[in-house]
Write a structure and sequence with these properties.
T-fold; alpha+beta; 26% strand; globular; 2 domains; nine-stranded mixed β-sheet
Length: 347
């Protein structure tokens, strides 16, 4: 988002890197690994399963994809019957009752909003519609245009009625978007579905965000963190069973305009792309938490992000605008740096 607009998309975990790991596992005579991909959630979702039976793997994966599709039907911003679409269409005029699952996500989104001092705010959608990352004809919206909608961005004006599981907006023309949190829920539900089908060793990955269960034979799963400016792996992260990782980066979806990079992670306080970081990865035991806090920490910047990570108990990898990498000390022994980039540990 140079006068001529260019658009790129994000791959936070590189597919060929997984292929290398799969070959290693097979060569060690452990159970076969099956990897199945589908386009869902506006990205490529890949389920990787280590199990003896191909039928078991396929049946479990198909059930997990069905569960992801169910979450998408609930929380999609474009499926007109979804809870999110109904909220956006009606909640500035009347209360809108939603599913328990959607309501819980909205409650958690407000909790993260409070803890992050507004850095994560699902009402960002009230201004996000001004940003069209058209690769052929991009130009950023004017300051005046953004300011005219910015007063709508504040989760204080998102009213949640727990007794009725109902949602209401305080202001007309408010909107919400769950793109920074619903993917984590879909990954979690997919993992739970795999487990119900007897799968004990697997990865569910959606556009770079993922969760692992079990191991790959006698070794832990390992995932690659992509370099934010090059098509190569920057670091390898050893994932303990039950851990999730989510990455937010300015390379995920962006266009260049007059030499400036404009990306889709908006700072709720300005309505413009956040400028404090290049890439942020959160590692914890909950993919919903990882998803939401990756966005929040990207907006907050390094200092506040690490303070929040310590307070709310998650590990963090931050690459700042100087291409310096900062990593939580909790990840010592679990991350192997491959790329040529300075690394500093943070308590």
């Amino acid at each position: 988002m140079n006068g001529k607009a260019i658009q790129f998309s994000r791959i936070a975990v590189v597919a060929t890197f997984f292929a290398i790991l799969i070959c290693q596992v097979i060569s060690c005579s452990v159970p076969p690994i099956y990897s199945i991909s589908r386009l869902q959630l506006g990205t490529l979702v890949t389920i990787t399963i280590s199990v003896e039976s191909r039928d078991t793997a396929m049946n479990a994966a198909n059930a997990a994809f069905d569960e992801i599709a169910r979450i998408e039907r609930l929380m999609s911003p474009v499926v007109v019957t979804s809870d999110v679409c109904r909220i956006n269409a009606l909640a500035d005029r009347q209360s809108v009752e939603v599913s328990e699952e959607t309501f819980k996500i909205l409650e958690y989104a407000k909790e993260v909003w409070r803890k992050s001092e507004g850095a994560f705010d699902i009402t960002f959608a009230s201004v996000a519609h001004l940003w069209h990352f058209d690769p052929k004809n991009f130009s950023p919206p004017s300051n005046h245009r953004v300011r005219s909608f910015l007063h709508l961005v504040n989760s204080e004006n998102l009213l949640l009625d727990r007794a009725r599981k109902a949602v209401r907006f305080r202001k007309k023309n408010m909107k919400i978007g769950l793109g920074g949190i619903a993917k984590g829920l879909a990954i979690l539900r997919a993992i739970e579905t795999l487990q119900r089908h007897g799968i004990r060793n697997a990865i569910v990955e959606a556009g770079g965000d993922l969760m692992v269960i079990g191991t790959k034979g006698n070794e832990r799963w390992r995932v690659g963190l992509v370099h934010p400016r090059k098509k190569e792996i920057l670091a390898v992260i050893e994932m303990f069973p039950g851990k999730a990782v989510a990455t937010s980066g300015d390379y995920e979806r962006f266009s260049m305009y007059r030499g400036i990079r404009y990306h889709h992670i908006l700072d709720p306080s300005t309505g413009f792309p956040a400028r404090n970081c290049i890439s942020v990865s959160v590692i914890c035991d909950d993919p919903i938490k990882a998803d939401a806090y990756a966005t929040a920490c990207f907006v907050l910047g390094k200092e506040k992000a690490f303070a929040l990570a310590k307070k709310d108990n998650f590990s963090l990898i931050v690459i700042d605008t100087n291409m310096q990498m900062y990593v939580s000390e909790t990840l010592q022994g679990k991350i192997n740096l491959i790329g040529n980039i300075p690394l500093q540990w943070v308590r």
